[in-house]
Amino acid sequence: MKGMHNKLLSADLSVQSSAESTIDAEKLTGYLGGRGLGVKLFTSLVNPRTDPLSPDNCLVFATGPLTGSIVPTSGRFSLVTKSPLTGLILYSNTGGSVGPALKSTGYDCLVVRGRLDEPCYMLVSEGEEPQIIPCRDLWGLDTLETQNRLESLGLGRFHSLMIGPAGENGVLYASIMNDGNHRAFGRGGSGAVMGAKNLKAIVIKVGKAKPDIDNPELLTTYVKSARDKMKVAPITNSSLPMFGTAGLLNVINELGMLGIKNFQVGYSHEAENLSGEAIREQIFEKDEGCYACPIRCGRMTKTQSMNGKGPEFESLLLGTLTSIFDLVTVTEANYHCNLLGLDTVSTAGTISCAMELREKGALNDDRIQFGNKDILIPLIEDIAYRRGIGEELASGSAQLAAKHGMPDAAVHVKGMELPAYDPRGAIGHALGYATSNRGGCHLTGYLVSMEVFAAPKKIPRASTGSKADLLVLKQHQSAIEDSLIVCKFAGYALGFDFYSRFATAVTGEDLNITRLMKIGERIYNLERLFNVKAGLSRKDDTLPKRFLTEPLSEGLSKGRTVPLDSMLEDYYRLRDWDKTGAPSRAKLEELHIKP
Ligand code: SF4
């Protein structure tokens, strides 16, 4: 397929060997690239019952046909593995420039399996066998120190993936950071998988390989038109460039659906202390963007004692979930998470769970109280190094709350802590949380984009009508965005028809919207099938009890709970999944998936 090199690099760390192979045309046309291709390769390599931290688990890094092209926001690439946090399939994607660097080596995908006897990093270069280089001196360094040390080695121009101490110490929600403390494969614990392999970093030297594009002239025309649209759409032209993703905070708070005090509350007048506007006014240094992105939503920021990137909207959970509305503390907590290689969402959800346990008398540690800003950064460090109470927190909120006899204090779906949108405020989004293949995730369906941000059009956020239908479409659309692969934020300006045009001009395949949506459905069902074989069933498609039974007590979402059962019935019928939660045989046949 054009747009891809059709080449895969596989490395087995246990025997320190590597092999290059051709990717079947059928896999590419059936799954495109990125998440889809990653899921297809991963599910053919890894037994669903595999221990995520064993050598048999694989890390599959996959670019898509648009990665590294001139299409706006096409700097992204995907990772698929088995999550140690959920025990389910984990798909994740990251921006920055590492994806285009991988593509420039002449490979579309990199598969890593096995385990090294000692800490090493991997060096990937165009036209050369990958090298495995011992690096005991890097083990224990934070992500920025690691990046600086790699830069001092005279490796030429490169981009990198790395873990911090949290990944080395097997924290179940450790992230893989890229280029130091910048962007991340944030969710689900891929950093712990890399740490279990003794792999500190993957260094990708920038090469010269470029895949063929089927119709470059047409692609240029489409790109110009897309950029023109992005220049006039308010979110991509003004809100994201000016305030970053944190610009969402005031809107979500005003709607009474911001995750506050471990989701016991949906609105706080103090939350605006952490808003995108406050960040701009008090700590902003400059904007920053991923490869080929005209939006540049990233914030480089500075406090009196530290500097770094962010916080993003979701990372502000470090303040809202803990009721710590102090911008400097939250910003520095976010920097620490990045340096230590921790997912900020799960870190926040686990700490706030501990705070609720202490508030309700189930945890005996007087320091761990909502609003105690002095405890936030020390707790983050304790988690990364598994020190003291950090040892318990390192396994995530579900295990923590269960251990202390109060499982409902953990706000998670399938073991993964929830992002910042309280689902009682957006009912379709709630169904998305309950049915996401990777657990508590806002990006797998992202129906909040319609329920709150009217993109591409506004739908009522409190009603259940048509939510299952729309969510299924959004889940398939999202799988395609993650497979081509482009940033979700471009969707605030561009309709899905743009992605169809880009994909067709690049690959030369007739990737019309109907065909793309069928590919999205295939990806979603293959992920689901893996999860069912891993032990997931219909009972796991649910939400924390508080969202189903405890109405919000104030703000514009006051009085609401989530009527999940009726939407779930519709959802299962539309998906043709059986009572156990498995895709029917007929559905698998229709999608050409082997049972
Ligand atoms: S909008 Fe932000 S996250 Fe998306 S590609 Fe651009 S800079 Fe990266």
Determine the fraction of residues in helical runs and give it as a percent range: 25-40%
Count of all domains: 3
The number of helices is 24
Radius of gyration: 22 Å
The average pLDDT value, as a whole number, equals: 96
Beta-strand percent range: 5-15%
Quick one: how many beta strands?
17
What class would the helix/strand composition place it in?
alpha+beta
Ligands (ions, cofactors included): iron/sulfur cluster
Concise synopsis of the structure shown:
This protein is of the alpha+beta class and 595 residues long. Iron/sulfur cluster binds next to loops.
Can you characterise this structure?
It is a single chain. With 595 residues, the chain is an alpha+beta fold. The chain folds into 3 domains: 7-205, Aldehyde ferredoxin oxidoreductase, N-terminal domain (Aldehyde Ferredoxin Oxidoreductase,  A, domain 1), CATH 3.60.9; 241-417, Aldehyde Ferredoxin Oxidoreductase Protein, subunit A, domain 2; 426-492 and 512-590, Aldehyde Ferredoxin Oxidoreductase Protein, subunit A, domain 3 (Orthogonal Bundle). 38% of the residues lie in helices and 13% in strands. It contains 24 helices and 17 strands. The strands form 4 sheets. Strands 2-1-6-3-4-5 form a 6-stranded mixed sheet. Helix 13 runs parallel beside helix 16, helix 17 (427-435) packs across helix 19 and helix 19 packs across helix 21. The protein is globular, with a radius of gyration of 22 Å. The two termini are 26 Å apart. Iron/sulfur cluster binds at residues 73, 95, 289-290, 293, 295-298, 487, 489.
